[in-house]
Specification:
about 110 residues, mainly beta, about 0% helix
Length: about 110
């Protein structure tokens, strides 16, 4: 299993970023996918999740209405569209799959600052 996140960076408050996670080494379309984040000094937080077929989605209350998770099973990729970003969204964002154990990418840094 191999997960590679990309798309992070520095953005001003109110801005947008789109994260991508390219997956390989397993049958991507069979598994739910998740985005987590970890900010310095804080616990890892589940941000969003999407079912294998994309029909069911979960969002943490802190991002609901601002973030959108999606997937393209033909491209073995899961996305996280982040709008109206706030400084509190600054963190390393990780892609995750349970197959059957937890697998993680190396993360992508998101910094929201003016």
């Amino acid at each position: 299993v191999h997960l590679v996140e990309s798309g992070g960076g520095l953005v001003q408050p109110g801005g947008s970023l789109r994260l991508s996670c390219a997956a390989s080494g397993f049958t991507f379309s069979n598994y739910d996918m998740r985005w987590y984040r970890r900010a310095p000094g804080k616990e890892r937080e589940l941000v969003a999740a999407i079912s294998s077929g994309g029909g069911s989605r979960y969002y943490a209350d802190s991002v609901k209405g601002r973030f959108t998770i999606s997937r393209d099973n033909a491209k073995n990729t899961v996305y996280l569209q982040m709008n109206s970003l706030k400084p509190v969204d600054s963190a390393v964002y990780y892609c995750n799959v349970k197959n059957p154990y937890d697998y993680w990418g190396s993360g992508t840094q998101v910094t929201v600052s003016s």
